[in-house]
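Write out structure tokens for NosL protein.
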Amino acid sequence: MKKIIGLLLFMTVLMLTACGQTETNTKDAKEEEKVVESTPVVTEVVAAVDERLMEPEAGTVCEYCQMTVYDATHELGVFTAQGIKSDGTNTFFDDVGCMLNQERIDGVEMEKFVRDYTTKDWLTLEDAIIVKADIKTPMNYGYVFFKEQNNADEFMKENAGSALTEVAAIDVVSHERHLMKMEKMKNAEGSEQMHDMPDAEASEQK
């Protein structure tokens, strides 16, 4: 009889212990689930430089020089520049100097963007690392732009004679070119007017 009672007590203890362990495991699982639910999922979001930026369409021409503007798929598309005017209008340029000269003509300042030479992503001109190099660009300004310094350094190693520069240096060169263009246009207009004059009057003008 004592053996039977002892066996019953032993089985009771085992059952209580098992129930306790099950309850503990269930509680731990619920706590773990709560931790998972309360832990925010971190996702990397890479924001565009400016959501207003666009890509040039086929047939787009430079606002300043009226030459073809290349998209990112073209070899020369890496030199395309983009300006956003105060009214929100996007305008494109085949080379950075043209963008600065258009500002000169309009007498206003645009928000200016250029492409990263490595990725062709847009970046602001003011934030760009600028390198002057002896390379072909649409209007032969020879400037390339980088977001990362290490990419600029690598480019300079591969292109002898290239060097870091500033926007002010680009502005000086573009201004000189603009003045030369205006002088040529003035001379061309003068020659055309002389050609339209009667011979006697044209001789007097000479």
